[in-house]
Amino acid sequence: MFLVDSALKRRASEGRPIRVGIVGAGFMCQGLTNQINNSVPGMRVVAISNRKLERAADVFRYAGIDATMADSQRRLDDTIALGLAAATDDPMLLCRSPHIDVIVEATGAVDFGAHVIIEAFKHGKDVVLMNAEVDATIGPILQVYAKKYGVILSACDGDEPGVQLNLYRWVTGLGLTPRVIGNVKGLQDPYRNPTTQKGFAEKWGQNAAMVTSFADGSKISFEQTIVANATGFKVKSRGMSRGLEYRGDVMQIGQLYDIDELREIGGIIDYVVGTPLTKVYVLAEHTDPKQRHYLELYKMGPGPLYSFFVPYHLVHFEVPNAIARVALFRDSLAPPIGGPVVEVCAVAKTDLKAGTVLDNYGMYMTYGEAVNADEMSSQRYLPEGLVEGCKLKRDIPKDAVLTYDDVELPGNRFADKLRAEQYVHFRGEGWLDQLLKVTA
């Protein structure tokens, strides 16, 4: 952060702000646009794309900016070159513009997001993701494409994966060995849906489906999967702790875990349901008894697991840090270390009948659970990020995990092809590729 702020001030003094284009004009885009254009020197949002054009213009107005409607590449480029803001319903105009440095993908859509990301790469654009779903589902293969095109793909500061990875890197830098990387939720109920969450969503001006994904556990599964894939940590079992409550002292949270089991696994991702005052935590041990003596002196307790935590996540307030880290320092936040370590499988939220066409995550039919990639592969689980549009071949009981054998996939979907490529590239497994050939 203390490198980032100085670098941004320098860019501001030089009159060379980082030019940001945002795809998806939702609640987070609204906050981020206002934050960047009114509080971040050396950076500005120059264009927003949204399928409902007026919504993109509304986001700029929220930040005190009048946007020009751009329906062509030339109109968008000329608008930005004049120092004005552009709103469009075509995200590819942002990806192709020479007047944009970084694309922020903020739609939460997996297939659509994949198209945007690859198009941005082809035109030399770095991408910062406010889209945990696409990152958790096909992030590893997208990183392969980022390297191919010589660009950066990064998660974002402020959201839980970024906050956890920053804390993980800091704790590792102190010489400790992290064993648990955890998140804290205020609510966990896998059967919530947009109807039950409507009131909360309307109160805060948010999308009911997105709010549902927070409540039913899908979102935290996507988020913790990103952390797992960036560290090599696994889950102890499918679903992590599945709503385990902990409302005690955060300094004592290590008592929930067996240190020998953690050492055998190497490290785990997890979450608990508890006080919102602690947002994320890293539990780590130190192998040097001399350093353990100092840690106890500094009120960290006797060990063996020492608790480090961040009591908040401020999302759009911190996303500009990720944009600057990418654009100025070529630093990717939370890149996967290789292929998937953990994935997110789809679980039936209610009894489902043969012939049903599944709705998306955060809706009425499924919720997501984090599961180790070996189990995901061997059992042929269907990813929660790819459920939308799949047609059931058979009845599925409530709380059963859906598999590829249970569904007919939508035809010719780009994200399916990328996930098949991901399996072949990292695991040498072709079963998904063969399945896609049959169902295309």
Rg calc: 22 Å
How many domains is the backbone divided into? 3
What is the CATH architecture descriptor of the largest domain? 3-Layer(aba) Sandwich
Figure out the total of helices.
17
Decide which structural class fits the backbone: alpha/beta
Mean pLDDT: 95
Topology-level CATH name of the largest domain: Rossmann fold
Shape: globular
- Report the span from N to C terminus: 47 Å
Name of the CATH first level of the largest domain: Alpha Beta
Describe the structure.
With 440 residues, the protein is of the alpha/beta class. It contains 17 helices and 16 strands. Strands 3-4-2-1-5-6-7 form a 7-stranded parallel sheet, sandwiched between helices. A 5-stranded mixed sheet has the order 9-10-8-11-12. Strands 13-14 form a two-stranded antiparallel ribbon. Helix 7 runs parallel beside helix 11 and helix 16 runs antiparallel to helix 17. The protein is globular, with a radius of gyration of 22 Å.
Task: Provide keyphrases for this structure.
single chain; 440 residues; alpha/beta; Rossmann fold; Type Iii Antifreeze Protein Isoform Hplc 12; 17 helices; 16 strands
